[in-house]
Specification:
163 residues, alpha+beta, Gamma-B Crystallin, domain 1, 2 domains, 4-stranded antiparallel beta sheet, 2 helices, 8 strands, disordered N terminus
Length: 163
């Protein structure tokens, strides 16, 4: 075969490979790789409360229980934490929640401080309580509830939080 034909054939292969790679890059959404490596994020689930495991209190960084593309998700499952004891939500979740869901049959309490400094800024959420957007909510002390939860507490029934 003539060297010019080999060079021409080689260029054709390189162009075909480049076109295939370009198509592969275009076919994958740019955020897919990033979202799949983030902790507690699932790109397979739609924006919904269904992401919250059974017997758990869950918080999402975004409204409408949405963290499909970005934002944090944190779950606190009954059995992993002592009952009637305040726990810090953790550095990543502290002051970040905009959606909450108490996917438990029993009550869960939330507080603006950890450890709680008073009874003023705490709520006792009934089992099954859900709020998709805390932006318009206020703590009893008057400050905004959005992006302010620091502590939670699991109760052992749905009658009281037993403070």
């Amino acid at each position: 075969m003539h060297s010019h034909r080999l060079t021409h054939a080689w260029h054709g292969c390189v162009l075909a490979l480049a076109a295939a790679l370009t198509f592969a890059c275009v076919a994958v959404p740019s955020g897919a790789a990033e979202a799949s490596t983030a902790a507690h994020v699932s790109v397979l689930l739609p924006a919904s409360r269904s992401q919250c495991p059974a017997h758990s209190f869950c918080m999402w960084q975004n409204y409408d229980w949405n963290n499909v593309v970005s934002g944090g998700f944190w779950s606190y499952t009954n059995g992993d934490y002592a009952l009637v004891t305040w726990f810090y939500v953790g550095n990543n979740a502290n002051d970040q929640a905009t959606s909450i869901y108490n996917n438990r049959a029993f009550r869960t309490a939330i507080d603006i401080d950890v450890p709680p400094v008073s009874d003023t800024n705490r709520y006792c959420l009934a089992g099954g309580y859900a709020d998709s957007n805390l932006v318009g909510n206020s703590w009893p002390g008057g400050s905004t509830e959005n992006d302010s939860i620091s502590a939670f507490w699991h109760s052992y029934d749905n009658n009281s939080c037993h403070f």
